[in-house]
Amino acid sequence: MLSSKIIRFKSILFFFLFTIHGAVSTPPADPIKCSSNNTNCTITNANGAFPDRTICKASEAKYPTSEAELVSIVASASKNKQKMKVATRYSHSIPKLVCPDDNGILISTKNLNRVLKIDRESMTITVESGVTLREIISEAARFEMALPYTPYWWGLTIGGLIGTGAHGSTLWGKGSAVHEYVTHLRIVSPSGPEDGFVKVRNLDESHEDLNAARVSLGVLGVISQVTLQLEPLFKRSLTYLTKDDSDLGDELTTFGRKHEFADVSWYPSQQKVVYRIDDRVSMNTSGNGLYDFTGFRSTLSAALAVVRGTEEIQEIGNDANGKCISAKFISATLAASGYGLTDNGVFFGYPIVGLHNRMQSSGTCLDSLEDLMITACPWDSRIIGEFYHQTTFSISLSVVKNFIEDVQKLVKLEPKALCGLESYSGILMRYVTTSNAYLGKTEDAIDFDITYYRSKDPLAPRLFEDIIEEIEQIGLFKYGGLSHWGKNRNLGFVGAIKKYNKADKFLKVKEEYDSRGLFSSEWTNQILGLKEGVTILKDGCALEGLCICSQDSHCAPKKNYLCKPGRVFKEARVCRRDVKTKKENDMKDEL
Which among 455, 420, 233 has a CA at the least distance from the CA of 322? Predict the structure, then answer.
């Protein structure tokens, strides 16, 4: 059992480490590593590990600086029938969408990073696909314009974020997904000798194929340019309101209609909900607000190591009480500091009013100083810091109340079970809308973002592993949740493509744009239903979400984690710690 002194130390440390601002941050490493001359390469994601811990290899990496160079690269690879995959600057997708097959090549958009045009009359911005969300927001604001709805983390490139359907939170207007605001897109795809082995397609809103390219998973080719619809810059007023979760199921179905930028953070073990009341206000409303989200700031590397070490001690000791104490302190500290909101540099209370570009997204841990031993982004894989699983799915508004009630039933059975994820800001719920994109959302829904501890040892079970696994399976299978394409463990994609009623249209465009599958991989073929193998059956596979357990060996029987039915959703199969088996094993050890 973790001592109260260690818990207090961690709590004080947490308060200190998250008061550091981005000016002393360390930039993330390039996700591509090569031996020499950009050959014999590997690629990973920002977390340093794909869900199945695959090491993805490539024969070489290419860094085009213009569309002309990109066209030449694709043409050459197409002529040689060489596999290709697109890599982004920071590689924040969790599944291995960037892994090429057969030692293919990587095409990085890192240097396709120019803002090409700002058109004030049409209120559009045209950028190359490697431009970051941060740069788009900043450049639009310079001309007093805004992209209305965006993800909250600005370290994403426009090509990467639209390719995986990334979004903010709203039920208003065209919805919260950035791809809904794409008016024009240029994509470079393989072709035959009659086209010089490459074709550049110009897609606008009059072209039906735009609905395939908007969420393309990188299998149609390389997006070279994107044009986004903007609107006049505006101000927002934001207040966080904390309530108990007794009426959460009912509140969720109406809250998103009341407030334009509404979202909800849920702390189930604390039976607490934080509602984001966030709306447009007049430009003459006073306030110079800034949202520099605490969790996206630079952090002391040494402090991160202590926090991670404490978390590991709690896991080894099955210390549920320690996790709950930590979670309560962290959530209380975040609330007291306004979650990173300030007005003229200070936080004295709500509402916080500020220009949209200063409130919509953040990520100051990307700002550069080259000393990794001092500070870094909390999840930087080069240090001892955060290492986590992420489960993200969207559930239709029509059944979301039932899902909430099922989770609450699990909490009643195990009140401390979800304290671990509450240390990662609880369950974030964002509103998403029906999309015309073939692989976009099929109906108005709530997206559930669940982040939780992951062991460095793939065969080590987690405390209350079964509860989060059951929630995952309830969301995905009982209520037909749609997986976020850029997040999730392998089991999140079981049968995923069958949930999209326009999947056949997408696959038809894919065949037309890349008939030889040069931008496809084993993984993308699996998640698109073209090949078996989304799940991997082996000892311990359920611990990492590589499979749904069907026998004890898929869990950790030697550590007393056995495959059991769900407690609320009986069809679920989860890895549960069996106290009876533990006692029997302890008796055998004594004998």
Answer: 420
User: b or e along 266-278 (b: 16 or more beta carbons within 10 Å of the residue's beta carbon)?
Assistant: bbbbbbbbbbbbb
Q: Are 365 and 22 in contact (CB under 8 A)?
A: yes
Q: What's the confidence (pLDDT) of residue 11?
A: 46
The DSSP line for 39-108 is EEEEE--TTS--TT---EEEEEEE--SSHHHHHHHHHHHHHTT--EEEE-SS---SS-TTPPSTT-EEEE
Across 81-232, where does the E strand assignment appear?
Answer: 84-87, 105-108, 115-119, 124-128, 145-146, 182-190, 198-204, 222-229, 231-232
Beta bridge partners of residue 241, listed in sequence order: 275
What's the whole-model pTM score? 0.95
pLDDT tens for residues 174-211? 999 999 999 999 999 999 999 999 999 999 999 999 99
Give the tokens for residue 508.
């038809």
| Bridge-based pairing state of the strands 105-108 and 84-87 | parallel
Phi, psi of 355 (to 5 degrees): -65, 145
Q: Mean pLDDT over all residues of the chain?
A: 94
Least Cα distance to 38 among 55, 59, 66, 57 occurs for: 59
Q: Torsion angle of alpha carbons 333, 150, 153, 334, nearest 10°? A: 0
SS3 state of residue 254: helix
pLDDT tens-digit readout, 443-456: 999 999 999 999 99
pLDDT tens profile 83-109? 999 999 999 999 999 999 988 999 999
Residue 591 has pLDDT above 90, yes or no: no
- Would you say residue 580 has pLDDT above 90? no
Cβ atoms of residues 522 and 533 within 8 Å: yes
How far apart are the C-alpha atoms of 391 and 385, rounded to whole Å?
A: 19
Helix or strand run (H / E) with residue 235:
strand 235-244
Three-point CA angle 90, 522, 382, nearest 5°: 30
87 phi and psi angles, rounded to 5 deg = -115, 145
What is the CA 232 to chain-centroid distance, rounded?
Answer: 28
Residue 16 has pLDDT above 50, yes or no: no
Closest CA to 223 of 233, 232, 213, 231: 213
**Strands 299-300 vs 56-62: parallel, antiparallel or unpaired:** unpaired
Q: What is the pLDDT of residues 492-536, one digit of tens each?
A: 999 999 999 999 999 999 999 999 999 999 999 999 999 999 999
Query: Does residue 58 contact residue 104 with C-beta atoms inside 8 Å?
Result: yes
Q: Hunting for tokens 């992951």 — which residue is that?
A: 454
Place of tokens 């909490």: 411
Of residues 591, 572, 582, 304, the one with CA closest to residue 461: 582
For helices 465-473 and 400-413, what crossing angle results, to 10°?
Answer: 160
| Cis amide leading into 351 (omega within 30) | yes
User: Strand pairing partners for 391?
Assistant: 450
Helix %, strand %, coil % of the chain (to 5):
35, 25, 40
